[in-house]
Design a protein that fits this description.
Order of helices and strands: HEHEEHEEEEEHEHEH
Number of helices: 6
Protein name: Secreted protein
Shape: elongated
Organism: Streptomyces griseoflavus Tu4000
Mean pLDDT: 84
Keywords: Membrane, Transmembrane, Transmembrane helix
Transmembrane segments: 6-29
Distance between the termini: 113 Å
Structural class: alpha/beta
CATH topology: Chitobiase, domain 2
Amino acid sequence: MSDDVRNLVLGVVAAGISAALGWLARTYLWKRKLRRKQTFFGLPENSECLLVVNRDPATAEPAVHRFDVFALLELSALIKDCGAHVQVVTQDAAHQGFGERTEFCVGGPGSNRRMVAHMAAMLPGVRVNVDPEPGPDRGAFQIGSERYRMEPGVTEYVLLARLTAGERRDTRPVFLFCGQRAITNQAATRYLARNHERLARKHGSHSFVLLLKVINSQAYGPDVTELVADVTRAAQTALPAPAPRGGHRAD
């Protein structure tokens, strides 16, 4: 074998080895990234999860607002990427506890009974004004001592939470998307889809509650969203009981 042929063969072999090593490295990094995503969402391969949909409060018929449908599509894509399976149930048909399966719950307490139960159990420091009558406090959030009023189409708020109950390592999380309007629910799911890697690095497997602000949704839809604050501590600390009215003053 001449030197030219030998060099050509060695070059081909070296190129093949480099390509194989590159493929193995990319596969390893992809699998590691997938495992981290599955861990954060509590969705190992072929696992089951629950997607709880709310109802559109603007209609008497059982219906889902179109922005909430878009939110469900965002979540479905995340679930599919993890290789998990989803069961979709309505807010009045989810009669089970939490922790056995990952749950994604969409919609504020005015349109989702399941959200009411989760907030009472795990977010005692949050109150949402669900009064249907028009007024400046309609839909407002109270988180601890702070109040967040919405200006429809201009400034609106949504809570994005990842919550776990108990200390078991296999306990699956509950994700809450509690917005003042349907478009803010979609904004929260989109924010989670775009930022789950950063959130996983920062919070790991711990619970967190984030307050997001959706800016000028009438022009930008759900795309312009800012993080206002991490309100985990305030949201998980029970609010003081309101002072009784008409009480008698002791002499």
